[in-house]
Amino acid sequence: MQKLLARGFLAFAGVLAIGLWALVWFDQTRFAAELGPLAPTPLAAATLRADVGGFFAAWAIGALLAAWRGEARFVLMPMLLLGLAFVGRLYSFALTGDAAIIAPMAIEAVLFGAMLLARHALDNPG
């Protein structure tokens, strides 16, 4: 049962990441309104698609592979991405003290923890 729940959560996390990837690629105005990054030039839009879109695409691939194959090793990729994102936000918070940074940090921490639990569930025999 634990493995089934873990795979279901990872599939959900992967679909969530695909949604965020699609938002970055196809609706940057809405992405900017909801998450902040603005692309005032074509170069900025391309950078968002490449860097932020690549982040969400890699997260989706790792989570969906882990869910589909039931293998814990694939969970490491989205965990690494979320961990690095958290550290980047923590650094930004330390520099600015902006309380708006705390909510996305909390989401990343919860997702990281849930992925850690899912990884352990997939690693357990039985």
Number of β-strand runs: 0
Unreliable stretches (pLDDT < 50, length at least 5) are none
- The arrangement of helices and strands along the chain is HHHHH
Biggest β-sheet description: none
Notable features of this structure?
0% strand; 5 helices; globular; 126 residues; mainly alpha
Describe what you observe in this structure.
With 126 residues, this protein is mainly α. It has 5 helices and no strands. The chain has helices at residues 2-26, 28-35, 42-69, 76-96, 102-123.
Describe the structure in brief:
The chain is an all-alpha fold and 126 residues long.
Topology:
Elements lengths: L1 H25 L1 H8 L6 H28 L6 H21 L5 H22 L3
